[in-house]
Structure formats: C-alpha cells, structure tokens
C-alpha cells in the first residue's frame, strides 16, 4: 500500500485561516504526506457561490503555497455539472488503487450526510475524519448517522487508519467562518486577521458589494 492520501473538499468561499489551520491539524494528526484541498465547482447542496470556482481555487493555491504537504486539486473546478463527493472519491480511488483515501468533513456535513448521494457507499471508500466546530453536539446527529459513527468509530491516529472507519479530529475548528469573512468584506472592513490572502480578495472587489447573508 502507498501512503494514505488526505482529501479536504469544500467551497472555500473564500479560503480563510480556519481552513489552513484545519488542514494542518488533519495532516499532522494522521501523519499524512499529502493533503489535497479540493474546491468544489457547482455544489449540489447550496446555492452556487458568487465567485467562480477557478477564482476560489486560485486563492486556495496562494493560501497554501508555503504549507508543507498541502496541495491544490482542481478536478472539481474543471468538472461540469454538480460536484458530488462520491464521484470525486471514486475518481481518486481509480487513480490511486493502492492508496487509502482519508477524507475530511465538518460536523455539520456529517449531520447532513443522509442527504448526500450514495452516502452509505461513501463510508466504504476510505477513512472518514470529522472536524467539529466548538459547541457542536454529536448527540444531535440523526439516528442513521449516529449508528454508523458508533459502529465505525476509530481513534484519530495514523495506526487506526482503515477503510470504512470514522475518526473525530481531537482539535476543534477555529471559530472563523467564510460567512463572517464575506460579511466583513461586504462592509469594506479589514480582513487581514481572517485570511492569508486578504490583499488578493480585497483587490478583486468580488465580495465588496455582496449582500449575501448566508
């Protein structure tokens, strides 16, 4: 078997320090040589972001340029139509048949997993890692997800990585969010404390007049 491959997908709308910190914790907790950040193209579960997939990907590339082991993967940016996680994982598995995929999602995404395409098959495609925001309560998970978590739960360590298992990242997510970042950008406020690519985002003007509260 080849070394496990970390997968971290999201809209990154836009990328912020919380994303980068989380990717680093994910990498270090499981001693992953590579973590691929995969900005989604057209997300099926939310309105499309106002900023193009390629622009969001460019900011991710800039944000992780000096981060060891963090790599941009643009496959979903180039994909036409909705981007489903199961399609991406299956594609990666075909490309790396001897590699265990270790894929990361947030606690909110875990709670909504039954709404994802082929969600139970998803759990067999690698080792799922869950990162929960401060205050997230795992007791509120819907029963189908809670049952799977209990059945598949494994310690968050390199030695426990295995197909079909689920681990909970011990470190919580930073409280910074893309929502707060977009709101501050819309008001023209300084965001250099929230994102490593503040200058690029501000100079683009793309969020300056946004009224999107989501």
From TrEMBL:
It is an enzyme of class 2 (transferase). Pathway: Cofactor biosynthesis; NAD(+) biosynthesis; deamido-NAD(+) from nicotinate D-ribonucleotide: step 1/1. GO terms for biological process: NAD+ biosynthetic process. Keywords: ATP-binding, NAD, Nucleotide-binding, Nucleotidyltransferase, Pyridine nucleotide biosynthesis, Transferase. One of its GO terms (molecular function) is nicotinate-nucleotide adenylyltransferase activity. It comes from the Bacteria. Its EC number is 2.7.7.18. This is Probable nicotinate-nucleotide adenylyltransferase. The gene is nadD.
């Amino acid at each position: 078997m080849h070394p496990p491959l970390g997968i971290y997908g999201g809209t990154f709308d836009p990328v912020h320090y919380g994303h980068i910190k989380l990717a680093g914790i994910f990498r270090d907790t499981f001693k992953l040589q590579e973590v691929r950040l995969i900005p989604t193209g057209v997300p099926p579960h939310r309105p499309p972001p106002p900023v193009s997939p390629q622009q969001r990907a460019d900011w991710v590339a800039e944000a992780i340029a000096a981060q060891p082991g963090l790599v941009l993967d643009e496959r979903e940016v180039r994909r036409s139509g909705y981007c489903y996680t199961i399609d991406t994982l299956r594609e990666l598995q075909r490309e790396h048949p001897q590699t265990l995929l270790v894929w990361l999602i947030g606690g909110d995404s875990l709670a909504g997993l039954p709404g994802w395409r082929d969600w139970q098959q998803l759990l067999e495609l690698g080792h799922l890692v869950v990162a929960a925001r401060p205050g997230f309560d795992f007791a509120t998970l819907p029963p189908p997800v809670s049952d799977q978590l209990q059945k598949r739960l494994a310690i968050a360590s390199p030695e426990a990585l295995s197909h079909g298992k689920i681990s909970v990242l011990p470190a919580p997510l930073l409280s910074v969010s893309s929502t707060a970042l977009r709101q501050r950008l819309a008001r023209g406020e300084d965001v250099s404390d929230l994102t490593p690519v503040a200058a690029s985002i501000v100079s683009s003007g793309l969020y300056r007049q946004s009224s999107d509260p989501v």
